[in-house]
Amino acid sequence: MVAPVVHCESNARRALPCRDLPVTLRETEAAPAFEFLEFDKGRLIVNRRFVDIFHQNGLLTFESLYSWNVGQVVRRIKSRSTTRIELNDAGGRRAFYLKRHEPPQFQEWLRPLLNLGRPVLGSRNEWNAIQWFHAAGIPTMTPVAFGEADGRSLLVTEDLQSNVTLLDWVNSFCDAGPKRPNDELQRALIARVAALACRMHQAGIHHQDFYLNHMLLCGHPSTLDVRVIDLGRAGRPGKLSRRWILKDLSQLDFSARRLSCADRLRFLRLYLGRPFSRSDRRLVRLIAVKSRRIAKHTAKHRL
Question: Which of 89, 168, 209, 225 is catalytic?
Fold first, then answer.
């Protein structure tokens, strides 16, 4: 049975200034409205747009969707896996990504606590984060379905029909040498990422894994259609501390290390929305120091 509508995403955007950083919103993009329905006694929530597809494929219970075993496993880390699945859709096929979380192991609870953080486990945080990003006008994945039962959880998003990340593009750009594309496109992509980072922090959201490989390039690069993905650890909208801003910016700087120093400084200037001042020197140094720490950690653990 279909339950009453449980949520409808508002188009309202929360403009929250970041502490110590003059971040400003620069673009206006309408946030889509989502309407979700409950199934299986509340154990499964489905975006109304996709209910017919799930009904056609007999996937309107948590167990039927969680145990779906047809598809290509694209990632498996500890207690979670991501599978690309295709479902019948009125005579055609429609692709989705199904992320499943098994009951977390004890160390997954313990490690964040030892680092004075809070455990972020299961699919719920990413399900919520996708909607926070949409509400802030930040392009990301389309939320399709979410479910929880017996310590397990799942998340379904629509296939964005691209597997090219901004890191892939940067690497190909740098590898091309003298034959690389014109610098105008590179500058436009840097400006686009700066606008997305600015908007995210202005909305009081931090990503926590803000690397170029977590930004998907959809369509031709000239369309500048960049989607922020992998939101499993994103922080809920609220008062954003300098610590989280610095972490996001340092992660991005680390993943863009093949670009020139001038390009990375151009990003930061566009992010700030003004020319650099003498007081920005400390910020630049802090980003550089933390970026080097990330590089050492990555090399040490062969990540």
Answer: 209
